[in-house]
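Deliverable D5.2: sample structural annotation.
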Amino acid sequence: MRINLKSDDMYEKMILNYLEENASDELVEKINAGTKTMANCMTFIKGEARTKAMNGVAMIEDKEVYGWAVHFFEEDEIKAKVKESPEIVVKAKKAA
């Protein structure tokens, strides 16, 4: 099932691809019916990574990043409240 979200960069595209390949039909319907964006999702993910950072560096496994993305879209009460910061970069690669 296709997810109706726009990805603006390669990291958003990687997460969107993961969601399209792994999200349940129920989650896809929820994503498509909601108002959350990939940009908001990335802000949420960066905020989660920031909580694990030590001295401005966070090493996060791909499966955890993808889990944060799923969690972001599953929970209605989650809002991306964290402001963008250039200190933290979250990279995800295709899940194995």
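Annotation notes: The chain has a mean pLDDT of 88. The radius of gyration is 13 Å.
The annotation will be released with the project's public dataset once the embargo ends.
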